[in-house]
Amino acid sequence: MPVLLQIAMLMPNWMDPEYLLNWLGDWSLWGTAAVVFIECGLLFPILPGDSLLFAVGLFIARDAISVPLWLACVILTVAAFLGNVSGYYIGRALGTSLFRNPDAKFLKPKYIEQTHDFFERYGPRALVLARFVPIVRTFITIVAGAGRMDPRKFFLWTGIGAVLWATGITLLGHALGKVKFIHDHLEPALVLLVLISLVPMLIEYLLARRRGRNSMGEREVGV
């Protein structure tokens, strides 16, 4: 895996989940919860949310983090949910006014445009699907808030997304954490995680194509 190792060496330490968890030590779970909360709600998209969740599950399985799995899942899911709620109310209060400078480092106008298109395409389901899409998961709640999405509907969909994302990826890491090969080859495991995270989007894309073909067939029959 020389290519993966070269890529890992180019990443800053704060993007390396193994380095972060070792550095945080006894505070690794709470540090991960803070990262998840910030990435999901405080307009800072360049954080290793997916890989950290996976690594927490893996570390718990290897007893490197002495916290019950159920407690870790609850804390991380709550952090993901509250992060999105914060982003939602930031969006309600400020709209998209923060995304006006094309030269901004993080709050680029193109990010909010891409997220808006994503929301328009998938509707409320976007709050679930976006959990698995870096950058989009940070700004989807801003768009929901700016668009004055009904709070009850928002809480429902973002809650579902929080459970599937935070709990799901942590459980995946735990399930694979007892496999020695996975523990000894974290970088390839994280690449696998990225591929798995794309599965919901692939499924939705295939379903959209199927719906499109069906609607075309109905129009032809009608003609």
Automatic annotation (TrEMBL):
InterPro entries: DedA-like, VTT_dom. It is a multi-pass membrane protein. It holds the Pfam family VTT_dom. Residues 47-174 form the VTT domain. The chain crosses the membrane at residues 27-60, 67-90, 128-147, 154-177, 189-207. The keyword Transmembrane helix applies. It is found in: Cell membrane. Keywords: Cell membrane, Membrane, Transmembrane, Transmembrane helix. The keyword rRNA-binding does not apply. GO terms for cellular component: plasma membrane. Belongs to the DedA family. This is Membrane-associated protein.
